[in-house]
Amino acid sequence: MTQTPDVPLQSRIIDDKSPICIPFILERLHARNKRLESSGAAPSKRPFIIGLNGVQGVGKTTLVRALAETLQRRELLQTLVVSVDDFYLRHADQLALAAEHPDNALVQYRGEP
User: Fold this and answer.
1) Confidence grade of residue 4 (pLDDT, cut at 50, 70, 90)
2) Buried (b) or exposed (e) across 74-98, using 16+ Cβ within 10 A?
3) Cβ atoms within 10 Å of 63's Cβ, excluding its own
4) pLDDT tens-digit profile of 20-68?
5) What is the pLDDT of the chain when averaged over all its residues?
6) CA separation for the pair 51, 49 (Å, rounded)
7) How far apart are CA 82 and CA 26, in angstroms?
8) Are residues 109 and 63 in the same domain?
9) Total number of domains in the chain
């Protein structure tokens, strides 16, 4: 088994998605803004929501961090990054919910059954 050298994790992360995904997302944002401008509508105060999903370890957090930084720095936009992990019940509450609904597989565990 190969051991990982004592190199900080951040420097071992390979970000192979940001160079592809960020320009694509920026295109969508610019197209939305252009549509609003050409329609004569007032600038929208509504948020531009981007959802991202993927299996564990695929690079979601790395991509989202790079995207948020790009939107803040280049586009001068405020960003808010949230994770579904931020919305899970506490362990005791999850156990209580599972006990209340023993036949519902969706509430027996955190995440997908």
Assistant:
1) low
2) eeeeeeeeeeeeeeeeeeeeeeeeb
3) 20
4) 999 999 999 999 889 888 988 777 777 888 999 888 888 899 999 999 9
5) 85
6) 7
7) 19
8) no
9) 2
Q: For the chain, where are the alpha helices, taking DSSP H only?
A: 9-12, 18-38, 60-73, 91-100
- Report yes or no on 8 lying in a domain: no
Burial class of 67 by CB neighbour count within 10 A (0 to 12, 13 to 18, 19+): buried
Overall size of the chain counted in residues:
113
32 and 58 assigned to the same domain:
yes
- The answer to whether residues 50 and 71 touch, using CB atoms and an 8 Å cutoff, is no
Q: Which two tokens stand for residue 24?
A: 């694509």
